[in-house]
Write a structure and sequence with these properties.
- It contains eleven helices and 32 strands.
- By secondary structure, it is of the alpha+beta class.
- The strands form seven sheets. A seven-stranded mixed barrel has the order 11-12-13-14-15-17-16.
- A hairpin with a 6-residue loop joins strand 3 (51-52) and strand 4.
- Helix 6 crosses helix 8 (482-496) and helix 9 runs antiparallel to helix 10.
- It is globular and about 90 Å long.
- The relative contact order is 0.08.
């Protein structure tokens, strides 16, 4: 309360100073403003330009950790400048910004309100592009621009290097105002003790106001023994002198001795084709728009020579259909799972065929009722089940909306037969981060998510008969096998539970505390909490952190019971239909559970839902939505479909018209509310 009162008094003082100035004094907020900047360290590269908020019209200088507010070198573009009526000298050191107050800056007769904030306890990274602008990079995610890189820790310059490029990265996050980037050094660089490499990622955490979700996943995956856990550190990012906010500087997911430590087949392909530009070779296979929807298809590069050993290493990513088109090499399974090759990116036909055949054999075994494929091999013969169990728990624990569908990496080492689930990546929409449009409230830690998740064909304006049938994700299908569930229980009790106690919670709170000042700067830079008050932004950040930690604590309790001997599986099978259905509740043996409404859609529009049955052919016990069922072990309810009567078709048509009208009215009200 005292701090807020102090800031109000500071603002009143600022207004008094403004009104007491010479005659016609106005607050200048138009474009083309004069510039003001400070240089906090001896190096000119540490320059920080003032920033005008488009949200509240205020000006800000966001200082890095280690900046001495009593000794900042200052510069401005006008001929005369004052701060609270104290004259500034261009290029001279000043103590004018030493107080915690709202400053009134006057430059050549025009007046501005200015806040000066300081970060604390995290490094500052400065990137200067060759053009002095980020316009080209922001216009096209694939555009690369040369740049310089500098880093400061507690005021000391610790890195000074050349970047081969900075470019955009990400999928949905690239469309946000605060954008993520990839950078590549000209020489391998060991950043902040994370190991030497050329490629690094700057994650914007634009969707994670706590800034700790990815750090939880990275740290926990390392603790439980998942392979190739990414190292990361928080930084304040400055680009061309402008403060961009709090970023997570982390290892990119790539093959390398300090990253995904497997054989590099990209290098092997180049060595086997020494006189050929591999990247210039012809692209072959099934390509083009919607190629990801072509089941059983493959794409590769027509590289003349294969290396002697093509058994590894491979770094692959399971991805959505819509993101498959732009990848250079990959395949789509007969059930519609798209798999991209991250390494080798330029894969030969033999390499794609080798992995695609292996993965298809695994998939055939996994999606069979017995767990065996036509070759008589069990799904567990194709995968490192321990890594998949640990990865399943990571996705279910975090309630990650993409788990087993996107940003899901699988590796294969040379001369080893099994696929490995690792490393973890992309946990922005996890640990209680709301995502609208799901059938499950992913902010509720007491519900299942990964266990019942489906991958669906969401193309619009196509006939239902042309869609790829909905299917369980790879992780959901793994859960359906009792032997895998037993392994989940073991890994939960032995690997995860010991790592999810008070010590981890305390370390997360300590991490969040070191980020508070940077988080407030980021919040003001990007208007996170729709207020200019520093204290309210700090309160907002602390609330964001508390949401994540509370979710993690409650989720731990849920999975302790959900992966115990008490838990059973009540599963709804589409029985040849389309769509997704989540059974949200924790089902315990011997308890009564209410049977849910069917949300599947028949592949034949002349058929509709009739009932649930414990047998696919309808010969078992029949249940209607709303009935109670007593769970005695695992139960699968199969949707039963019957031909629609004329009256039912009329009712469905009327219902669709009513729903359409409701949608139109809802959209109209949304438009009206904007005004």
């Amino acid at each position: 309360m005292r701090k807020r009162t102090k800031r109000v008094l500071s603002l009143v003082l600022a207004l008094i100073i403004c009104l007491s100035g010479a005659g016609v004094m106005t607050v200048f907020a138009a474009s083309g403003n004069p510039e003001l900047w400070v240089i906090p360290f001896e190096d000119e590269a540490s320059r920080v330009n003032w920033y005008r908020s488009s949200f509240n019209g205020r000006y800000y200088i966001f200082l890095p950790d280690g900046a001495d507010r009593t000794a900042l070198k200052v510069g401005f573009s006008g001929s005369k400048a004052t701060v609270n009526d104290k004259a500034l000298v261009n290029g001279a050191v000043t103590d004018a910004f030493s107080e915690e107050t709202v400053y009134v800056v006057k430059i050549d007769g025009k007046m501005y309100f200015l806040d000066v904030l300081s970060s604390d306890a995290i490094p500052a990274v400065y990137i200067e592009t060759e053009s002095g602008s980020m316009d080209a990079v922001h216009a096209d995610k694939s555009h690369k621009e040369k740049a310089t890189f500098a880093a400061y820790e507690n005021g000391e310059k610790t890195y000074d290097a050349q970047l081969e490029y900075i470019k955009g990265r990400g999928n949905s996050t690239w469309g946000l105002s605060k954008k993520p980037y990839n950078i590549k050094f000209e020489k391998k660089t060991d950043l902040f003790g994370m190991g030497k490499a050329k490629k690094w990622s700057l994650l914007a955490s634009a969707l994670d106001l706590s800034f700790i979700r990815n750090m939880i996943a990275f740290g926990l995956s390392d603790s439980v023994g998942l392979y190739y856990a990414s190292k990361a550190t928080h930084v304040d990012l400055y680009v061309n002198g402008e403060y961009y906010g709090n970023y997570l500087l982390c290892e990119s997911v790539e093959v390398g001795s300090t990253r995904v430590d497997i054989d590099d087949l990209d290098d092997a392909n180049e060595e086997a084709n020494a006189d050929i530009d591999v990247e210039a070779c012809e692209l072959a296979g099934t390509r083009g728009k919607n190629s990801g929807f072509v089941t059983g298809s493959r794409k590769w590069v027509n590289i003349p020579n294969d290396p002697e050993n093509i058994t590894g290493g491979y770094l692959m990513e399971l991805e959505f259909y819509t993101r498959y088109d732009d990848e250079i090499s990959g395949f789509t399974t007969t059930r519609g799972q798209c798999v991209n090759f991250k390494s080798p990116e330029y894969a030969t036909k033999a390499q794609v065929d080798y992995v695609a055949d292996l993965y298809q054999a695994f998939e055939d075994a996994l999606y069979s009722e017995t767990g065996y494929n036509s070759q008589g091999k069990h799904y567990s013969e194709y995968i490192d089940t321990e890594s998949f169990a640990k990865m399943y728990i990571m996705q279910e624990l975090s309630m990650n909306i993409d788990g087993g569908k996107s940003s899901f990496f699988i590796t294969k080492k040379a001369d080893e037969d099994k696929l490995i689930a690792s490393p973890v990546w992309d946990f922005d929409f996890a640990f209680g981060r709301v995502y609208k449009g799901l059938r499950v409230d992913n902010t509720n830690p007491w519900l299942w998510y990964t266990r019942d998740d489906y991958l669906t064909d969401d193309r619009k304006n196509i006939d239902e008969s042309d869609r790829i049938p909905a299917r369980a994700t790879i992780l959901s299908q793994l859960y359906s096998h009792s032997d895998f569930r037993a392994l989940l229980q073991q890994e939960w009790n032995e690997s995860y539970l010991p790592e999810l106690g008070e010590e981890r919670i305390s370390s997360l709170r300590a991490l969040a505390a070191t980020l508070e000042s940077s988080a407030v700067m980021d919040a003001l830079r990007w208007n996170r909490y729709s207020t200019a008050a520093h204290e309210e932004n700090l309160d907002g950040y602390r609330a964001s952190v508390n949401t994540v930690i509370s979710f993690l604590e409650n989720r731990t309790q849920f999975l302790t019971k959900g992966l115990s001997d008490q838990a059973v599986r009540l599963y709804y099978d589409a029985n040849g239909a389309y769509g997704i259905m989540f059974h949200e509740a924790l089902t315990l043996n011997g308890e009564k559970t209410v049977v849910k409404e069917c949300t599947f859609t028949s592949a034949d529009r002349n058929y509709g839902f009739r009932s649930w049955n414990t047998a696919a052919d309808g010969s078992g016990e029949t249940y209607q939505p709303g009935d109670e069922i007593v769970t005695d072990g695992d139960i699968v309810l199969y949707a039963q479909w019957g031909k629609l009567t004329v009256l039912e078709k009329i009712k469905l048509f009327i219902s669709s018209i009513i729903e359409y009208i409701r949608t139109i009215i809802s959209k109209l009200f949304s438009v009206v509310s904007i005004f």
